[in-house]
Amino acid sequence: MNKDNLNKGFEIELFTGTCGSHVGVSSQIEKLFSNFVKEPDNRNVEYITDPSKDYRILYDSLLQPRKELRKWLKVMDLTIIPSSTLCFPHQNKFQRSDKSNSYHNFIESNYGLSIATSSVHINLGIEELDKLFAAIRLVRCEAPLFLALSASSPFLNGAFTGNHSQRWFQFPKTPFEIPFFLNHNHYINWIEQNINDGTMQNVRHLWSSVRPNGPKRPHSLDRLELRICDFISNIDLLLAITAFLELRVISLFDHLESLDPLSSSKFSLDELKDICDQNELKVSKDSLNAELIHWKDGEKIICKDWIQNLLNDLSISSRSLAMNHFLEPIHKVLKEGNESMKWIDKYKQGLSVEDIMRSAIYNMIKNEEENNLWFK
Q: Per CATH, is 8-370 categorized as 3.40.50.1980?
């Protein structure tokens, strides 16, 4: 990897179950696998990868925990379900993984099943704080594009919801009003004020499309965390989206004056906040086909056209960093549609959610077994 590449790491949430039901075993998984942790709902489990600049290392660190988990699940007649929502019929009841956890008590009482989702969080290492907050501002403005590429949650409780990302549509963004942070001090003061006011339970209780992260938040920060993406079962696509994000952030660092929304948007930061919220909602509904408002000039643009424009802008830097081939899966999504769009087409043709998920599970396993595509 080029010296200019950033460290990257992932938090991967997974649903477990059968081809027709969600089955909670996260408490057992956490005891058996040191790199997995349980989520508040027992049907959901998470693993975290170590940071690396090298996409080949990242490929293996994403793949191997999944393969090891799958071996154990197979013995239990279970599998990994590649939907970001509870897609199969289920009772409207939270399944607690840890009844003694007070934070989980709060989550269940205040949010219920709306947070029972699976996703991918992409972390980029950025230690220079001014650059970190500039990146958070830009990525917040363009976060809907990453959701559109990853959308994989059109179903809930056995039916089509009408949304391409039901997960992001239902997920409780918290606190309700999140400003564009001007700098580190602004972020620290805002976090501490919200915790003191009780709007946030703790420093982790900032649930937004993107946020700062680090070893001791809010004071010690070293990375950007993109949280908006649905679960991405295809590792090649996940790393393509990561490369797209990394290239965009590197481009920002080379053109801060023209790409930081603080200095290059016609809108105030309060106006930008509303535009971003609208764009996220539109993409949760229609993903790649959504008509969005550009953060820079207010022009309306179709989501997939915006993504294509950015890919064109990044073509020179992607070649100079030897990353252009990493982006191929994104071109395929723009041509063929994302996971949700493909599943919705099948649903409208008469296939059941169970049939669609059975095929998706097969494709996910096949992709893991091939283990030989863009990043090998």
A: no
